[in-house]
Amino acid sequence: MHLTRWALALAATGLVLGLACAKPTKITVAPKQIVMNDAGGTKTLLATVFDQKDRPMEKAAVTFTSSAPDVAEVDAAGKVTARGSGEATITATSGKASGQAKLIVHIVSALNLAAPQDGVKGPAGDVVPLLVSGTNERGEPADLSGIVFTSDAPGVATVDNQGRLTLLTSGDTKITAAIGKSKAELLVPVHVLVPMAIKVPTPPVQTIKAGETARLNVSVLSDLGEPMDVPFTCSSSSEKVAAVDKDGNVTGLARGTSEITVMAGTAKNTIKVVVR
């Protein structure tokens, strides 16, 4: 009985001595990197101290310092406060051990959102980039990494996080851009162009030689009367006289006449091809 008590006391003494001899040898700081966009914004770092046996030292005293207080300050509890655009290293120290975290501050004090000068229009599925810019607290162009865009009418147009609209149908959508506390909104009228006419030469006749290939001089016009870069289909009324491919290239095969029909959506027109 006495021996057991003595053994327990000896083990406890060894444990106390072991803990007393523990020294900080490593510090991890989480998160390892922080990006902030607002002056006065705060984030708190967590520093964990480990001894030489890789055991956490919960009661170890930790001090925090900032390599650039004009970019970010840090208090005794590891709370970081953003002050200005730039980069800073936050160092946590306990004894001779230290750990670091990187802080990137991109202050965005003003954010601007605009549509292209010629408007937001194009065929369904077309991608149109919006014009996005921002300035920092010094009036310089701001880094907009991490900006988020949303569309309040995704059935009209969706938007990705580079500010590019994918057009789906005609209508209006409000696009919101946000980064930190800065936000910009823009009401965007979207016009999805549809093919309304096929423009052909006047008179609509093309003459080629047998064995010769020529491209049809046609263009697709939208409902706004503007040329559209959209696919069209072509067919020949007499494939023994003239063949036509998907790109509008006509090849004369034998003497005669063939009508080439060009279609895009519901728009349709014809060209007479004479092969000599």
Question: What this model shows, in words?
Answer:
It is a single chain. This protein has a four-stranded mixed sheet with strand order 2-9-8-5, with no helix packed on it. Strands 11-18-17-14 form a four-stranded mixed sheet, with no helix packed on it. It is 7% helix and 51% strand. It is built from one helix and 28 strands. 27% of the residues are buried. It is mainly β and 276 residues long. Mean pLDDT is 91; it is low at 6-17. The protein is elongated and about 105 Å long. A hairpin with a 4-residue loop joins strand 22 and strand 23 (227-228).
Low-confidence stretches: 6-17
Sheet having the most strands: 4 strands, mixed
Largest beta sheet: what is the strand line-up? 2-9-8-5
Number of strands: 28
Tell me the Rg in angstroms.
35 Å
Report mean pLDDT, rounded to a whole number.
91
Number of helices: 1
Query: Structural class of the secondary structure composition?
Result: mainly beta
Strand percentage lies at: over 45%
Choose one word for the global shape.
elongated
Gap from first CA to last CA: 122 Å
One letter per element, helices H and strands E, the order comes to: HEEEEEEEEEEEEEEEEEEEEEEEEEEEE
What percent of residues adopt helix (DSSP H or I)?
Answer: under 10%
How are the elements arranged and paired?
Blueprint: H1 2-21, E1 26-30, E2 33-36, E3 42-44, E4 46-50, E5 63-66, E6 72-74, E7 79-82, E8 86-94, E9 97-105, E10 110-114, E11 120-122, E12 127-129, E13 131-135, E14 148-151, E15 157-159, E16 164-167, E17 171-179, E18 182-192, E19 195-199, E20 205-208, E21 213-215, E22 219-222, E23 227-228, E24 233-236, E25 242-244, E26 249-252, E27 256-264, E28 267-275
Parallel strand pairs: 2-9, 11-18, 20-28
Antiparallel strand pairs: 1-4, 3-7, 5-8, 6-7, 8-9, 10-13, 12-16, 14-17, 15-16, 17-18, 19-22, 21-26, 22-23, 24-27, 25-26, 27-28
